[in-house]
Amino acid sequence: MKKILLLFFVSLFITSCGNSQNKKQSKDTPDITAYANKISASELKDMLYTYASDEFEGRETGEPGQKKGINFIKDFYISHNISSPIADGDYFQEIPEAFFSGKAKASENVLAYIKGSEKPNEIIVLSAHLDHIGISGNGDINNGADDDGSGTVAIMQIAKAFKAAKRDGHGPKRTILFLHFTGEEKGLLGSRYYTTIDPVFPLKNTVVDLNIDMIGREDQKHEGKANYLYLIGSDKLSQELHDISEAVNKKYFNLEFDYTYNDDDDPNRFYYRSDHYNFAKNNIPVIFYFNGTHDDYHKPTDTPDKINYEFLKTRARLIFYTAWELANREERIKID
């Protein structure tokens, strides 16, 4: 009888230890997919129908509609308890009118961040431009739903997903900066100000810039086909970045990555035409995510009803997974 009881308690002890170990492993290994799934098509739609509404008057740099835009972004970060790296409650990087050389009035970049748990001085930047081209001479409002309302709301949703992970004890090892640029339509001026005048985090500590500019539509080449994305710049400065990007895509989505515009001889020269380029000029690896142009580009017809919200959701989740990998891998990506 004593032997039977001894065997029973030994078995109970082993089972208890096993369950404890399983719980520890579960706690230490986050379910990344659960956080990616926080990015929803319905929330993206609700946000974009506000951000690209007539009320925001096309968000021209320095104009009243752009001021409404930055407050919309700020209020989102405050409501999700995502801090600013500038000062408590101050999410605006002020850019004086003189910097715009007559192209615009004084304006603001918007910054929010999640501090890294292990490598806080290494920075992963997620960027998109918050401005658009405003009101046409005939009074038509250019809402800029795809350009770049789609990138703006995608970054906000990605930030929400990272914040959910942090609340559960799985915050990123590296700091993630959510950076919304003004003045892109005036010549990449908001990103130029950040990279040349006032980098809130030193550029030497900036690991990568994942820049999103138009990811809510499809172009004529891919019309009616499965989900895709143009990627530009991923291998220009770091082959390792390109390889990581490819591996993440194959693991989670297997979207069609189209590198047409990445060609050095591409006449569109998109590599030089969005905010990531001001990071690339400073030897910081970049990826530019882009759906290509369409007939509504820079027209009043670029409206939120024409966005493919399932595409937008999937593309935003892909960028979240890529940022997660870059933020949590042991070694900083290497520059070639």
TrEMBL record:
<feature type="signal peptide">
    <location>
        <begin position="1"/>
        <end position="20"/>
    </location>
</feature>
<keyword id="KW-0732">Signal</keyword>
<dbReference type="Pfam" id="PF04389">
    <property type="entry name" value="Peptidase_M28"/>
</dbReference>
<dbReference type="InterPro" id="IPR007484">
    <property type="entry name" value="Peptidase_M28"/>
</dbReference>
<feature type="domain" description="Peptidase M28">
    <location>
        <begin position="109"/>
        <end position="321"/>
    </location>
</feature>
<protein>
    <submittedName>
        <fullName>M28 family metallopeptidase</fullName>
    </submittedName>
</protein>
<dbReference type="InterPro" id="IPR045175">
    <property type="entry name" value="M28_fam"/>
</dbReference>
